[in-house]
Specification:
- This protein has an 18-stranded parallel sheet that branches. An eleven-stranded parallel sheet has the order 3-6-9-12-18-20-22-24-26-29-32, covered by helices on one side.
- Strand 16 and strand 17 form a beta hairpin.
- With 480 residues, it is mainly beta.
- It is globular, with a radius of gyration of 21 Å.
- The protein contains three helices and 35 strands.
- The longest helix has 10 residues.
- The two termini are 31 Å apart.
Amino acid sequence: MKKQGLFLTLVVGLFIAACGKKDAVIDPNPPTGGGSDNNVVTVTGDIAANTTWKADKIYLIKGFVYVTDGATLTIEPGTLIKGDKASKGTLTITRGSKIMAVGTADKPIVFTSAFEAGARSNGDWGGLILLGKAPVNQGDNVGIEGGLDAKGNAAKYIQYGGTDVNDNSGTLKYVRVEYAGIPFSPDNEINGITFGGVGKGTTIDYVQVYRSGDDAFEWFGGTVNCKHLIAMGSLDDDFDTDFGFAGKIQFGLSQRFKTIADISGSNGFESDNDGSGSDKTPQTSVVFSNMTMLGPITKDGETNVNANYQHGAQIRRNSALSCFNSIFSGYVEGIYIDDTKETTPNSTLTNYTAGRLVFKNNLILGSNKKGNEVKGENKDKFETQLRAENVFNAAIYADAVINSPFKFSSDFANAGTPDFTVKTGSIAASGAAFTDAKLNDTFFDKVDYKGAFGSTDWTAGWANFDPQTMPYTTAGAVKK
């Protein structure tokens, strides 16, 4: 492919190895938004020694780049990093290594497409992958999905899992990941951010994934806790939990657009113990609180909704996910406790009736297009309790409880700046409860409101709801 000027090559570790796969070229047109010749650093191969990426440069990830051998990659606030599409540019933090990407509200760190403004789309590059040593129910050496190159040493490059619940893969704070999620092969895509066996010594706070070509966030096992997450315009699921993930998540936002969904079926939450619904331990037992989950439907009679949209939450295959104090609005189908594929029949239902799976004090609004805002093969055994412990109202949508939820990026229709703060006096403005034993943890902020926002907009300054219009041609210029 053509190069835009002469790139300065960053030499890291003992050598540089090209990691591109040998498939056909994904896109015959090269990116044209790279920046000036003297401030672009092309990164390939392994980062095997402590390295700092500085805000006065733009970094271009080409091929599969791995932080290895216990090294720490430090990224300065305001740094701009781009991923190359033709080589499936992807950054992986391997077990025992760290990323210290600590931005600020004024100077977020941005991972984004290498294409120019107006030409960007989901799947323009790979994504960000963190691999750790925390427990996973598939064993201590599990290969991460997405088609990464193991380079003849899977344990070093692509495996995750272990026994250290407190494992530390570093920090992501005030970070944006835009237009990631390239498909390696059908139904084998890289997510916006993938966590494999990441431990709770890791800090994840104020992180946005915009227009991922697969899931926005996916956790495979591990114990990491996360706050202030944003998933916008995802293709597949927004928050996907598997393989015994046992972390805690508070204050998360997802916003979908009605025409963008994945052929595999797109959900707000998708959760499995594993792909076969086995009884393996640790069991997937993530706890969510204060999530704002905005599906594709904004009003009665909404048209042109992608047929691949599914549920606000699909809890299946022996998962014991729990969710409290949250808002689900505008999904084709509501809450699905799914017993269709399990080693032990009806194990997901049993998780609910035994109190391992708790879904309580949530608002489910405008999510009855197919007449199943409550869904399940054993619906007769749980519907009464589920309705008693939550509010279901198919006649209203998110704009009844949120100030301006239906403004979107210029990538879509109805462009504008959304305001996700709660409407004063609405049913979401009060009534949050933290009395359940699963919320008895200092991690959870004991707020009054339901959903991700009270009166304070924690996205202000660092998040970007319209990155398509960002030039991204000047180092350090990550905000308008």
